[in-house]
Write a structure and sequence with these properties.
There is one protein chain. By secondary structure, the chain is mainly β. Helix content is 0%, strand content 51%. It starts with a strand and ends in a 6-residue tail after the last strand. Strands 1-20-17-22-15-13-14 form a 7-stranded mixed beta sheet, with no helix packed on it.
Length: 241
C-alpha cells in the first residue's frame, strides 16, 4: 500500500472578487507536472462562489463532471436544454461528450444571499464522441449517518444514484457522527476527501479539505472524531489504461 496526504493549505488557489477555488490537482494557470491526476481523477476543485456570480457559459468536451454541493445552491444550464438547481444531498453529473456549453451560477432565487460551497470533480470518459448528457437525483434520504452511499459509478458491479461514462470509477459519500466508522472500498486507486469535520484513517488525523491519495488502500477504517462527511473515489485504472 502507498499513501500520500494532501493538507488543505497545500493546494494551489485561484481567488477573485467572486470566487475562492482550491485545486487538488493542476488546474488552469496552476500547472505542476508531478500533480496532474490520481487514477482517472483529473480535477477536484473546492469552490466558494458569492451570491449573484458564477461561471458564465463556457465549453467542455470529453469530460465527465460530477458536482457535490456542501452548502448553498448552484444553478446549472446547458446547450442541450438541461437545467437544474444543485444543493446538498443531490447527486449530479454532466457528460460533456462530443461537446457542450454550460453555465453554473449562484443565482437561485431560493437562496439569494448565501454563498455556494461545492466540490467539482472531472474524469475522462471511456469512449470519446458520446452524446452529451445530464443527470441529477436527490439522495438526501439515503445519507444516513454511518452509511457509505454510492453516489456515482460507471462500474457494472455497482448500483449508484447516477451513472458516469467511466467503468473503472465509483464515487461514494459518507456522513458520520462522532466515533462512527466506515470501511474504504477496495480499489487499485483511492482518493479520499474530507468535506467537513475531522476523521482518523490508519492513525492519521484529517481535517476538513484534507485528502488521501492511495494505492491498495481498500479495507482501511475511517473513524469520525467529530461529525464529518467524506467523499471517496475508488478507481481500478489509471489515466491512459
Amino acid at each position: 500500500m502507498s499513501k500520500y496526504i494532501t493538507r488543505s493549505g497545500d493546494r494551489a488557489r485561484t481567488t477573485t472578487d467572486w470566487l475562492d477555488s482550491a485545486h487538488s490537482f493542476s488546474f488552469g494557470d496552476h500547472y505542476d507536472p508531478a500533480n496532474t491526476h490520481h487514477g482517472v481523477l483529473l480535477v477536484q476543485n473546492e469552490d466558494i462562489v458569492v451570491p449573484g456570480q458564477g461561471f458564465d457559459t463556457h465549453p467542455h468536451a470529453e469530460t465527465e463532471i460530477v458536482t457535490w454541493v456542501l452548502s448553498g445552491s448552484l444553478v446549472h444550464q446547458d446547450s442541450e436544454g438541461h437545467s437544474g438547481v444543485i444543493y446538498p444531498g443531490l447527486a449530479q453529473r454532466m457528460s460533456a461528450g462530443r461537446g457542450i456549453r454550460h453555465s453554473e451560477r449562484n443565482d437561485d432565487a431560493e437562496s439569494p444571499d448565501e454563498p455556494v460551497h461545492f466540490v467539482q470533480m472531472w474524469l475522462m470518459p471511456d469512449e470519446h464522441g458520446i452524446e452529451p448528457g445530464y443527470e441529477q437525483l436527490d439522495i438526501a434520504g439515503e445519507l444516513q449517518p454511518g452509511r457509505l452511499v454510492t453516489v456515482a459509478s460507471g462500474s457494472p458491479d455497482h448500483d449508484s444514484a447516477i451513472r458516469i461514462a467511466n467503468r473503472s470509477a465509483t464515487l461514494s459519500a459518507a456522513r458520520l457522527s462522532a466515533d462512527q466508522r466506515v470501511t474504504v472500498p477496495t480499489a487499485r486507486f483511492t482518493h479520499l476527501f474530507v468535506t467537513r469535520g475531522e476523521v482518523e484513517v490508519d492513525g492519521d488525523r484529517l481535517a476538513a479539505s484534507d485528502a488521501v491519495r492511495a494505492e491498495g488502500f481498500g479495507g482501511s477504517t475511517i473513524r469520525a472524531t467529530t461529525d464529518a462527511e467524506v467523499l471517496i473515489w475508488s478507481m481500478d485504472a489509471r489515466l491512459g489504461e
